[in-house]
Amino acid sequence: MKKMLVAVLPILFVMLIGLAPQASYAQCTLCKNNVEAARTEKDGYDISGLNKGILYMMAAPYVMGGIVGFFWYRNVRRKRRQAI
Q1: Segments of the chain with pLDDT less than 70
Q2: Where does the signal sequence lie (predicted)?
């Protein structure tokens, strides 16, 4: 089982990277409307960092979940060692 997981995990990772979009113009309707309004007004509103900010907010829950998962894994592994 462990050998199969080691073999399949990198293939799955490469497939997910290949399917990921490289660039997008707006991630949600609200953001798209803000960008379109800013383009029509031309009042000096800088929209260059909008997509990066959205991606940053999207990544935060995954990072937090990874941290929780790491500590959970470490705790389970420590308990298994003590049981032996």
Answers
A1: 1, 20-27, 41-48
A2: 1-26
